[in-house]
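Table S2 (text version). Query chain:
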Amino acid sequence: MPVTGKYNATNAMIASYVALQEGVSEEQIGQAFQNLELTRNRTEWKKAANGADILSDVYNANPTAMKLILETFSAIPANEGGKKIAVLADMKELGDQSVQLHNQMILSITPDALDTVIFYGEDIADLAQLASQMFPIGHVYYFKKTADEDQFEAMVKQVKESLGAHDQILLKGSNSMNLAKLVESLENEHN
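Corresponding structure-token output:
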């Protein structure tokens, strides 16, 4: 399958089982997986203009999905001579528990697996603070997106400064956080 993540393998096994029960041949199932195309911006590998690898998962976000993609990204070996960077933005529509649910992501963020983490949003601010206590100084960045202030451009600038040609970068957040615009900027512009 041309997709990454243990959860996608689990989904594929369940889909295969159902297909077999419905009389679809193993050959047809295998063919379908080889030609699988996910919804745009859902767990998609792309290339930055500078050569870095981008794992874009910016279509939507919830705590389970963010935890799984962080685990998957953390388990992927780093490129030779490259860093691993995560850009995490707010997960929307989580209600009263939003800040608490964002904070739980600290269990999926470790300096052993990630070199730099860049946070963007409002409800993710406390998580950025927690991460800054775990990572070396200068390896955690936080940019606001509130009703009064949006530091999107500053965040994009920092991402471009941090991202080297051999690096891998994960982008994860709700669609309304506009990380797709950051992905496009990384794909189309040289530093």
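Notes on Table S2: The beta strands are 44-47, 53-57, 84-89, 116-121, 140-144, 168-172. The two ends are 32 Å apart (CA to CA).
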